[in-house]
Amino acid sequence: MPTRFSGSAALWSPLQYFIAILAVIFVAEAGVMYLLPFLLPADVDASVEALCDAAILTIISAPLLWQLLIRPMRMVASNEATKYATIVEMARDAILTINDSGLIISANEATTTMLGDETQLSLIIRQPIGQILLYHHSDPMEALRTAAGTKRARVEADLVNNAGVMVPVEVTVSQISLRGRSYFTLIVRNIMERKRSESLLADANRKLIDTAHMAGKAEVATSVLHNVGNVLTSINVLASTVHEKVAGSRSSGLAKAVGLIREYKDNLAEFLTSDQRGRQLPSYLEKLSDTLASEQRELLDDLISLNNNVQHANQIVAAQQSYARVQSFAEQTDLSELLESAVTVIMASCQRHSVKVIHDIDQAPEILIDRHKLIQVVVNLLTNAKDAVAELPVADRRIELRAFPITSQQVQIEVQDSGVGIEKSQLTKIFSQGFTTKKNGHGFGLHYCSLAASELGGSLTVQSDGPGTGSTFTLTLPLRCTAHELSR
Question: How far apart are CA 293 and CA 464, in angstroms?
Fold first, then answer.
């Protein structure tokens, strides 16, 4: 059966090509053998007869091969080149190709729209990528090479438009090697609206917390709003991620294929049949469908995480009842799974801020506890750790989460950061209500964690050797809460 290369044209399989070529040669040779006795004298020399045989065979077989094989292949290749070139030109994201020296060698029309409608593509070509893309804390080519070597290959940067305004963008990077030279395909997406939404959400969350705190609802409302705010931030990031994946399909693989087709468009038929990469291109495009299926699975995973965060927010609000002396609900919980859920809540935010999260929780035992109260505490501690490392160089932003039993009746959870550290004079006040070292802090996040740890029958402590040394928060909990502790 023909293997599909596009929706409207088909290429034969290698076996079908082989059979077709044999058939053409057979028909041509049969015709030659039939005509040759009429064209040559009976006593002609054998070498002359062989030469005439080959010449007539070539004259007959060449048009047949062209009409039956080469011409259809050229049409298919031309259609595919046109289709993928159209996809690139119609894309709403800017798509650029640069060489290993950082010079732009191609760009689509969306690039001019992003830079300013009066921009001409001819003025962009052969210009250094660093003139329009600025990467934070690194050289543009260094950032691109680093991103291309990662799994997700996405980095955030600023694009400088014609008006000199820096526009926040997300750059998806793929690297290919052709004829011994490296090339990078960049898909540049404007994320100004996403950044604006995140800023508005952060402002709204801060105002909600301030309003509740000033209204005298500190113990219940502020703690609930704080925890919901953490979840809402993750929900917003997940929602933005899902929107971006749906609006613009992952096209780095497609860009790579288009780059090959564009490079060999003048002799595409020969490239598809003679070049090893060309022969692999149809199967590569088939594999691209697997990539799209994987993208669908990622979307489903994101939606599951989104739903889990929504459910967690609902549980946080419902947990207000525990402060009104309503009985809490404890359940047997896999602590390692609970901690994984807490990491998931803050992971999107950590990735945006380039914070590395390391967790060693395989030894975490099962525990009978109020699951949602504990996850609030852990999320608060992880968020606090993320904020503590936010101003460090990217390479130094690190959070470690550990959990292990310390006795047959107790388990210990540690959240360690490489951040700014804590003054020794502040260690005794860090859990007091209203105390904060953050510019925009409110001083109830760690206070809530300390209260919740006590209500769960455990304790929360902190250790730091001073400014610049990081800090470690240690949560010690019983493996089983008592009835008295559950009713608190």
Answer: 47
How many Cα atoms sit within 13 Å of 406 on the Cβ side? 12
Q: 471 to each of 361, 385, 427, 462, 463, how far by Cα in Å?
A: 19, 8, 10, 7, 6
3-state secondary structure of 476: strand
Residue type, 408: S
Residue 246 CA to residue 92 CA, distance in Å, equals 13
CA distance linking residue 398 with residue 423, whole number of Å: 20
Q: How far apart are CA 274 and CA 328, in angstroms?
A: 71
CATH of the structural domain 92-190, one choice from 3.40.47.10, 1.10.575.10, 3.30.450.20, 3.40.190.10: 3.30.450.20
Residue with tokens 């709204």: 204
Tell me what pLDDT residue 88 has.
62
Both tokens of residue 96?
């650029």
Rounded Cα–Cα distance for residues 210 and 225 (Å)? 10
pTM higher than 0.70, yes or no? no
The structural domains of the chain, with segments of one domain joined by +, span 14-90, 92-190, 192-318, 325-486
Residue 374 one-letter amino acid: L
Query: What pLDDT score does 324 carry?
Result: 41
DSSP string, 28-50: HHHHHHHHHHHHS-TT--HHHHH
Task: Note whether 255 and 174 are within 8 A (CB).
Answer: yes
* Secondary structure letter of residue 395 according to DSSP: G
Q: What pLDDT does 382 receive?
A: 92
Assess contact for 344 and 357: CB atoms under 8 A: no
Cα dihedral across residues 60, 66, 67, 68: positive or negative: positive
Which amino acid is it at 284? Answer: Y
Q: Which of 100, 106, 108, 94 is nearest to 160 (CA)?
A: 94
Please name the fold of domain 325-486: Heat Shock Protein 90 (3.30.565)
For 46-65, what is each residue's pLDDT tens digit?
Answer: 777 778 777 777 777 777 77
Which ranges of the chain have pLDDT less than 70? 1-12, 14, 68, 81, 84-89, 117-119, 136-138, 149-153, 205, 208-227, 229, 246-254, 289, 292, 313-329, 433-444, 481-488
pLDDT in tens, 301-327: 777 877 777 777 666 666 544 444 444
Query: What residue has token string 């740890």?
Result: 453
- Length of the chain measured in residues: 488
Kindly report the three-state secondary structure assignment for every residue of 349-379. HHHHCCCEEEEECCCCCEEEECHHHHHHHHH
